[in-house]
Amino acid sequence: MKYSFIELNDLPNEILMIILKKLHNVEILYSLIDVNKRLNTIVHDPIFTSYLTLMTSSSNCLFDRLTDTILDRFCLQILPKIHHKIEFFNLESSSMERILLLTNYPNLYGLGLYNLASETARDLFTGKIFASINY
């Protein structure tokens, strides 16, 4: 055992799930989706796809949008694949329109919006922001 190496792929699915549950869903999806067939199946599990926080938070409770690189990958590759599994989003207001206008989220029932200016909130709740959505 002194020189024994165990790789991630050697672990049973149950152990991988225990490990992955300790991480943020966004990190798991960004890092492991489309890596290989086995990991793809695991990360498509509803435990990782139903509740997404697509923003970062700091220790002083400030919220920032994801970096453009991460947000681009989510909008172009990840969200289109899992859109039907998403039930709840936490979004930072500057990326809200881009993410929500990307596709239809048929099972979305909850939305947390952060850093939302009062004028944007007014436009959102009076239908001015999403008036161009065609479902």
TrEMBL record:
<feature type="domain" description="F-box">
    <location>
        <begin position="5"/>
        <end position="54"/>
    </location>
</feature>
<protein>
    <recommendedName>
        <fullName>F-box domain-containing protein</fullName>
    </recommendedName>
</protein>
<dbReference type="Pfam" id="PF12937">
    <property type="entry name" value="F-box-like"/>
</dbReference>
<dbReference type="InterPro" id="IPR036047">
    <property type="entry name" value="F-box-like_dom_sf"/>
</dbReference>
<dbReference type="InterPro" id="IPR001810">
    <property type="entry name" value="F-box_dom"/>
</dbReference>
